[in-house]
């Protein structure tokens, strides 16, 4: 896609999300809050569906993975141990002419193609050597400085500063001992968590791709230190890719990026990101890192608690190593939206249709009476809505004509529409219309529930 088209596609998607109740700029009546968003009714459904799919695949169906749900505010010592308090920084630089603020490594990469992440002096020199500001063409830059990404807050005014967690992983490590002691888990095993994380990003951008308050879905997978980890690592990469494909992403829009050895933390053996081809270009969707025994060792040191694992079969004690598959939920939502958004030419015009897989679609079935001013049709449609909504997320719609209702449901990606017409009153059957093929078939009301169970499973 050419750059102008990519920009245009992103703008279309952002305005579509607002217009159709998926995602809005937050607190808009007060002028909004920079790059912060609320999920509207369909966005919230989409988010819940993706969360449920992830939990099902990686917790419910895995005998070796358990879930947990820790708080956002944690003891600050945890962030000292993890290195976040001293080292979770981004490099910032300001253009003195237009006063715009940039993430220095991003602007340097954009202007030179070179990755200088972490090299503050080199970035300052490079920018001050005459690179032009992408916003105003000026070339007067401040020095590049580090800015902490940690959001600081207070608790009861006494207990020192606390921090909004910058990742969900922290509580998994600090509760490792409680989980091992209370649940029958045996290495290799994983602990999974879904929840909010907060990062004071210098520049939030690309809609919900980079935001300051977001949700992560993380697993810490503990292994015996001598385990041959490479096949497991490959298996996790495949599982991540499989999950993205189950949301509608095409395989050719996914690629792997291995972090160069020189940029890896000293404890990490390998890190590979799985990137998705968003309209603004490839961006990180999943991360997968081999973190060695760094986390448990650090938390043991800072807490004074023994976090060894005892292997009763081989009668040995060790600090497990960990593989960490992680993903941002908001980025998965953006992936599902970008992958599903389709503009189609029809014989009688055009339509926008969200080709979500059935499990992802916010609404599974829409139920309509053919005419809203015929009480007998409305009553029957409401009865069908009542029955189906026990099983599936449904919507009742009697606004406008049936053609307009179909278009509305196509746009939000509803796989099936059910219309109650005059014949229904005699043959006890309804018209079921398929979103993608637009084909219609007559189904008996008594068979509807099983029909959709089969279609939507
Ligand atoms: N515990 C490891 C960890 O947090 P990360 O690569 O910094 O690793 C994990 O974050 C995932 O969280 C990323 O792969 C990305 O999908 C998501 N993520 C990170 N920062 C984000 C942001 N500012 N907005 C939205 N999602 C973000």
Q: What would the average pLDDT be, to the nearest integer?
A: 96
End-to-end separation in angstroms reads: 34 Å
Strand content: 25-35%
Structural class by sheet pairing and helices: alpha+beta
Low-confidence stretches: none
Helical proportion, percent range: 25-40%
Mind describing the biggest β-sheet?
A: 7 strands, mixed
Radius of gyration: 26 Å
Written description of the protein model:
This protein is of the alpha+beta class and 457 residues long. The protein has 15 helices and 23 strands. The strands form 7 sheets. Strands 3-9-10-16-13-12-11 form a 7-stranded mixed β-sheet. It has a 5-stranded mixed β-sheet with strand order 20-19-21-22-23, sandwiched between helices. A 3-stranded antiparallel β-sheet has the order 5-4-6. The chain starts with a helix and ends with a helix. Residues 167, 169, 199, 201, 210-211, 214, 216, 218, 284-287, 324, 326-328, 330-331 line the site of glycyl-adenosine-5'-phosphate.
Question: In a few lines, what is going on in this structure?
Answer:
The chain is of the alpha+beta class.
Itemize the secondary structure elements and their pairings.
Blueprint: H1 3-19, E1 23-25, E2 37-39, H2 41-60, E3 65-68, H3 76-82, H4 84-87, E4 89-94, E5 101-103, H5 104-112, H6 120-128, E6 145-148, E7 151-154, E8 161-164, H7 169-174, H8 176-182, E9 189-198, E10 213-223, H9 230-246, E11 254-258, E12 270-278, E13 281-292, H10 294-303, E14 309-311, E15 316-318, E16 321-328, H11 329-340, E17 341-346, E18 349-354, E19 365-369, H12 375-388, E20 394-396, H13 402-412, E21 416-420, H14 424-427, E22 429-434, E23 440-444, H15 448-456
Parallel strand pairs: 3-9, 19-20, 19-21
Antiparallel strand pairs: 1-2, 4-5, 4-6, 7-8, 9-10, 10-16, 11-12, 12-13, 13-16, 14-15, 17-18, 21-22, 22-23
Helix pairs in contact: 2-11, 3-10
The structure holds glycyl-adenosine-5'-phosphate.
């Amino acid at each position: 896609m050419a750059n102008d088209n990519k920009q245009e596609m992103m703008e279309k998607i952002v305005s579509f999300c607002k217009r159709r109740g998926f995602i809005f700029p937050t607190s808009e009546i007060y002028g909004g809050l920079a790059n912060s968003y609320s999920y509207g009714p369909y966005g919230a459904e989409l988010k819940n569906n993706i969360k449920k799919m992830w939990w099902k695949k990686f917790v419910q169906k895995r005998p070796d993975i358990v879930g947990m749900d820790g708080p956002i505010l944690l003891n600050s010592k945890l962030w000292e141990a993890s290195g976040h308090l001293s080292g979770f920084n981004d490099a910032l630089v300001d253009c003195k002419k237009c006063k715009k603020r940039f993430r220095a490594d991003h602007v340097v990469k954009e202007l030179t193609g070179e990755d200088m992440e972490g090299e503050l002096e080199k970035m300052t020199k490079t920018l001050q050597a005459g690179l032009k500001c992408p916003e105003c063409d000026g070339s007067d830059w401040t020095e590049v400085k580090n800015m902490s990404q940690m959001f600081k807050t207070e608790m009861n005014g006494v207990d020192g500063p606390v921090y909004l967690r910058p990742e969900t992983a922290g509580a998994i490590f600090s509760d490792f001992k409680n989980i091992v002691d209370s649940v029958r888990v045996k290495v290799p095993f994983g602990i999974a968590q879904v929840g909010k994380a907060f990062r004071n990003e210098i520049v939030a951008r690309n809609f919900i791709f980079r935001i300051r308050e977001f949700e992560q879905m993380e697993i810490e997978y503990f292994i015996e230190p001598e385990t041959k980890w490479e096949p497991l690592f490959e298996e996790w990469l495949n599982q991540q890719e499989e999950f993205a494909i189950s949301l509608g992403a095409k395989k050719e829009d996914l690629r792997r990026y291995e972090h160069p050895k020189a940029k890896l933390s000293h404890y990490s053996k390998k890190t590979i990101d799985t990137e998705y081809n968003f309209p603004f270009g490839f961006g990180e969707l999943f991360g997968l890192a081999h973190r060695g025994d760094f986390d448990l060792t650090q938390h043991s040191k800072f807490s004074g608690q023994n976090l060894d694992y005892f292997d009763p079969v081989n009668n040995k004690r060790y600090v497990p190593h960990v593989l960490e598959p992680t993903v941002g939920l908001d980025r998965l939502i953006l992936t599902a939206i970008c992958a599903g958004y389709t503009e189609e030419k029809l014989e009688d015009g055009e339509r926008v249709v969200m080709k979500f897989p059935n499990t992802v679609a916010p609404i599974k079935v829409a139920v309509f009476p053919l005419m809203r001013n015929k009480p007998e049709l409305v009553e029957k449609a409401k009865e069908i809505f009542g029955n189906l909504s026990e099983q599936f997320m449904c919507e009742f719609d009697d606004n406008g004509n049936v053609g307009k209702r179909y278009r509305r449901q196509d746009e939000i990606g509803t796989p099936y529409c059910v219309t109650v017409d005059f014949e229904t009153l005699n043959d006890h059957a309804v018209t079921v219309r398929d979103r993608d093929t637009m084909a219609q078939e007559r189904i008996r009301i008594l068979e509807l529930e099983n029909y959709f169970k089969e279609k939507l499973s």
